[in-house]
């Protein structure tokens, strides 16, 4: 029988106000949680003794496939059936969907896909699948554009025109920018209850082979979603898919830009770091 973890809590505005503050915007009106902002709700708040040396829980969903395995966030898919309403309870049920072992150029890799379903008022509101990759300690970082088993890559282009602002973007605007530094990374870790030390402990990040603090994958995905939302795109009844194709490190300003649609009805976006490397791609599908 597949293990599941269930959590129920009231959807209150305070965490969303915290995320809005981090993004230097006001909480959008309307009494509903903006798309993708559910990542700061219904969190698994583990006891301190449950955490491993890297800050992640040593057991649970997903459980590390072996001692010392290093964790990376690779991407995912979110289908929004309805936006969550403030002032009402919601329930999240989480399980491991599948696990795949692969041998890559960097060594053995374990791909784990975790699925969460969030219900409100007895109806499915959000279906969220996240792809997580584990590598052996001491191995090199996997190459960019990890191929996640069972997923389809979202293409990106090289023609961009970033707009250096996190203010609202009117329809047709080119993009967003976000300045990340240790303070912002720490605040985002706190909002998501993510204790992974690569995001706030530079000395530990170096132990895992990174040249600096790692910018959260979900933060990059969230900003791609924000580009669509602030341009007036609706998420209800649509799937948002995203991939982390290369890690981003250190203090910098990254840009989020729209790209050519992957079909006549779909939208796509990409994240570029300060030197122009694409680190994440996304699509908002019909």
UniProtKB/TrEMBL annotation:
Protein origin, superkingdom: Bacteria
Family annotation (Gene3D superfamilies): Hotdog Thioesterase
Any one GO MF annotation of this record: (3R)-hydroxyacyl-[acyl-carrier-protein] dehydratase activity
PANTHER family in the cross-refs: HYDROXYACYL-THIOESTER DEHYDRATASE TYPE 2, MITOCHONDRIAL
Protein name in the entry: N-terminal of MaoC-like dehydratase domain-containing protein
Organism ancestry: Bacteria, Bacillati, Actinomycetota, Actinomycetes, Streptosporangiales
